[in-house]
Specification:
Elements: H1 4-12, H2 15-40, E1 52-58, H3 66-79, E2 84-88, E3 101-103, H4 111-114, H5 116-125, E4 132-134, H6 138-149, E5 153-157, E6 169-175, E7 203-207, H7 214-227, E8 232-245, E9 251-252, E10 261-266, H8 271-280, E11 284-290, H9 299-309, E12 314-317, E13 336-347, H10 349-357
Parallel strand pairs: 1-5, 1-6, 2-4, 2-5, 6-7, 7-8, 10-11, 10-12, 12-13
Antiparallel strand pairs: 3-4, 8-9, 8-13
Helix pairs in contact: 1-2, 3-5
Length: about 375
């Protein structure tokens, strides 16, 4: 089955395909703008929860580090003794349900029930007693969070286009390597909505800021300042944080990869960033397998990878690890590792903390 990106690539090769993509983009943009204004003018109803609601999202289809930003926000609030819960849609779950699934220490919710990103967040946040509630209806999940866990702050994961739930703070993530998502909305470009949507954000974070020149970074700053003069614009980078041996579930030092020849496997919006992180850790990436975002790996794909690995360690991501087939251990030999990556605010850290904790008394 062809991925959406493969289909778009084929369409771009012909003039009629490019015309079709552009026409589809105009139609999609009009729908998204119309929907936005219907909520803005209160024609479509939106609801508010009793806890302070902070939205973390993006304008593009991937690659901004949204999950890492949610984790950083949760950790920031936890360190400031603020009770927090996370609301997630649980995109592309193998076992979807309208019921609210809860990830919390002591509960046995599987990644198939919750989704790969919520499950990964839970693994990293273990021990902090931060509940992650997963449901397509984020308002319903929020009601349960408020009722059962009494959070002071609700983090709305990937909710920038989710207008049904009102929030107190919108944090918008922008990938500095592609800040304008190709200049068009889906399907011709990678924008989920017109770039003017950035005007809704109070905080804009330029992620991957170390992967572009200072000139490109300043151009992005100036462009988004023009769209949204009131927004506070921060900068952030991604750094490796933890290495997990998937066979033993033991954590290893990042130096474990130094000078090793490795292969890597990912299904991400921005696989280059992951591969660059491995190189920065001192590893020599000899083989790289890339699949569409949220791809669920099959045992035949794993067999194909194993046939050419030559016994070198295989490194995947925390997000991708749960989507390995159940019997991968019977096929893959040697080391199989997962790399966790954290977001680090390099410019505007005080603003990040102050905006998240604004108006909230410490528990």
């Amino acid at each position: 089955m062809n991925s959406p990106e493969q289909i778009r690539t084929r369409l771009r090769a012909a003039w009629w395909g490019r015309a079709l993509l552009i026409a589809s983009s105009w139609a999609y943009a009009l729908v998204m703008l119309g929907r936005r204004y219907l909520y803005q003018w209160r024609i479509l109803p939106s609801k508010r929860l009793s806890a302070r609601t902070v939205c973390i999202g993006n304008l593009t289809t991937g690659g901004t580090g949204k999950t890492s930003a949610v984790l950083l926000a949760a950790d920031t609030l936890h360190k400031n003794q603020v009770k927090v819960a996370i609301l997630s849609r649980g995109y592309n779950r193998p076992q979807p349900t309208r019921d609210v699934q809860v990830l919390l220490d002591g509960r046995d919710t599987t990644w198939e029930q919750a989704g790969d990103e919520p499950w990964m967040m839970h693994q990293i946040l273990k021990g902090m007693e931060i509940p992650i509630l997963v449901c397509p209806d984020r308002y319903r999940a929020g009601l349960e969070a408020v009722h059962y866990y009494q959070p002071q702050v609700l983090l709305l994961d990937d909710g920038f286009q989710h207008h049904r739930l009102r929030r107190d703070l919108d944090i918008l993530l922008i990938n500095a390597t592609d800040p304008f998502g190709g200049g068009r909305v889906l399907p011709a470009g990678n924008l989920r909505e017109p770039i003017s949507g950035a005007a809704r954000a109070r905080v804009i974070v330029l992620t991957q800021s170390d992967r572009v020149s200072k000139e490109k970074l300043e151009e992005a700053r100036a462009a988004f300042h023009k769209i949204n003069p009131r927004a506070k614009i921060l900068e952030a980078v991604h750094r490796p944080s933890v290495l997990l041996d998937l066979r033993t579930e033991h954590k290893r030092r990042l130096s474990h990869l130094k000078d090793k020849q490795i292969s890597c496997l990912s299904a991400l919006g921005d696989p280059k960033s992951f591969e660059e992180q491995l190189s920065k850790s001192g590893a020599q990436v000899l083989q790289a397998w890339r699949f569409p975002d949220h791809h669920q790996f099959t045992i035949d794909e794993i067999r194909s990878i194993e046939s050419v690995r030559n016994g070198i360690p295989l490194v995947t991501t925390f997000k991708d690890a749960p989507r390995l087939p159940l019997n991968w251990r019977e096929v893959l030999t040697g080391e199989v590792l997962a790399l966790g990556v954290r977001l680090e605010i390099t410019q505007g850290k005080d603003i990040w903390e102050a905006e998240l904790c604004k108006g909230v008394r410490h528990a």
